[in-house]
Amino acid sequence: MFNIPANQLMLKQALKWGVTYWDTADCYEGGGSERGIGKFFGKYPETREKVFLVSKSDSRSPSGMTRLLDRSLERMNTDYIDLYFVHGVRSIRELDDDTRAWAKKAKASGKIKLFGFSSHSNMEECMVEAAKLGWIDGIMMTYNYRLMHSSRMKEAVAACVEAGIGLTAMKTQGGGSVRTNTPTELKLAGRFLQKGFTDKQARLKAVWENPNIASICSQMPNLTILMSNVAAALDRTSLSAGDLRLLNQYAHETASTYCVGCSTLCETALVEAVPVADVMRYLMYHQSYGDCDRAKSLFAQIPSSIRERIDRLDYSLAEERCPQRIPIGRLMSEAVKVLC
Prior knowledge:
This protein is of the alpha/beta class. Helix 2 (32-43) links the parallel strand 2 and strand 3 (52-57). The protein starts with a strand and ends with a helix. A nine-stranded parallel beta sheet has the order 8-7-6-5-4-3-2-1-9. The longest helix is centred in the first third of the chain and has 14 residues, at 62-75. The protein has helices at residues 8-16, 32-43, 62-75, 97-109, 123-133, 151-163, 183-195, 199-208, 223-234, 241-253, 263-266, 276-287, 292-300, 304-307, 316-321, 328-339; strands spanning 2-3, 21-23, 52-57, 81-86, 112-119, 138-142, 166-170, 215-216, 218-219.
């Protein structure tokens, strides 16, 4: 899957190389991502039927979702969206009977074909509960070599498969590339180099090892990354059991550097409502992905009354609850310094 930039050359090349599952959202690049797709479909109308198009709504209300869906359709110069997500769900309670009725109506109108949600936080709980609803078609969730081996994630994936829910993995790099600062990192880099992979390609392959993952959503902002990801997808060489064990070992050794999104644990330990998991994700965009503008833009959307106090709170109880043993207080202070 292609996490879409607005670059016309990128879109054309992606389609040429067989990348036909395109992901975007109403809010990406201030709407520029959707407008870029619309410009492409306007120039090459015959390509629309070759693309499985995904977009998302930040709104939860039926009226808001209708407004954003109609705007997305207009921007992208299309009559329908193949899969439409409610964006960034933290709790299944964000979806209710009104959401179900809206999805049914949108499908009947032909504006969308499938409906679901994306989730960066509390993914496992959201997935298990979604499997009980009976009207969720697809879920896009954070899923990578750090998360895939946990019993909670395995149970969540199994529940969705049983319910017939299609799963798309995102944030598949698990926090960035190997830095070769430890023996395990050096061993990882050397092992994959011998097999002709980069560590980033190996991380994609680790996710593809699970046949229950329908697709990977990968941000590909330039042709180099697009080409690298396509090469990894076309290369049929599988990771060995030893490769996967080494990745798992690396995940354990570096657990305290990666937030797994279990925000119900840390955020309920605070005296004020701070979106810890979101701030951690924005910090990851800045430090690991090098996507500084996006990180700062998202951080700026946090109400100023909260941003101004983020680095002044006591995070000791939240740190005690964190299964990853992340130094939350230090990272919150760091986020304020680099994202403000």
